[in-house]
Design goal:
The protein is an alpha/beta fold. It is built from eleven helices and 14 strands. It has an eight-stranded mixed beta sheet with strand order 8-9-10-7-11-12-13-14. Strand 8 and strand 9 form a beta hairpin.
Length: 318
Amino acid sequence: MRLVMIGCGGMGSYQAKKFTELGVRLVGAIDHNEKHRTSFCSTYAVPFSFSSLDDLSFFQGKADAISCCLPDSLHYECCQLALSLGFAVFCEKPLTTSLEQAKLLADQANGLPFMVNFSKRSTPALAALKQVLDEETLGILEQVEISYLQSWQKSHVWGNPEENFRWKWRLLPSYNPGGCLSDLGSHLLDTLFLLFGEVRFEKMVHTLQEAVPIAYQAKLIVGERTSCTLTCSYCDERWDDSLQIRVVGSLASAEINTSLDRKRVRIVQGGEETYLLSPTPLSSSYQEFARWADEGVAGKPDLGDGLRVQALLEEMSR
């Protein structure tokens, strides 16, 4: 696969490492930030680069796909243009900032490979938890708690957001109007869909609003009728970056916390603890996309997954 990276900051560099490890050829880069673009092209030996998305047409015939690593509010423009030029698309989550935009992309895709990077799907502990649920080890499900907690807005653990645009844009409504709900909550919603099949919004419980939401909590229903509490935050100083899930059933409970153990799910039954490893090796979203673009084998999470998350995000942000 020949790939053009659109957005050469922190996430663009992270994706470039993942893709090049798979043998993907980076043939182009687009970023208005000259410093980011120059450093990126030097690191990954990228032959062609531009400062404007308007130059994407240059890569027709030279590239197979693009990866959109821009702030959320720019996803639609980037992906829409890429689809119009016939490129396969790999887009950072969330898909867009509105359901209307997401539907327009779905209408335009017309069979082109299109994936949304809900990267938490490849967490081994999550696969282990899914096995536990599929085998009904916990009995009748009674309660689910899911959270994605980060501290950086207060702790500056990854740098001062006033000085580091990689974090600052997440606090600006012009770039990330959904705040932590769309940024972190999109991962949580995709995870719930993956584990339980159905997810319905009941009510918002709490939000901490600055220019954008920096903390958010809601009540949901997952599966047929299981109550679920969803929490996400940029300002929870207990955890730098932690995805946590607890599922309580009539026979046992299961927990994962990626800050403590990314590979295993903890099961508590009758006062005894056991740990279950992921049953099989997992494909990353990067592997899935490269295979789709090269071999025509459709990958997940796809445009449909992005669309259903977007619909729920819109309902939860009203």
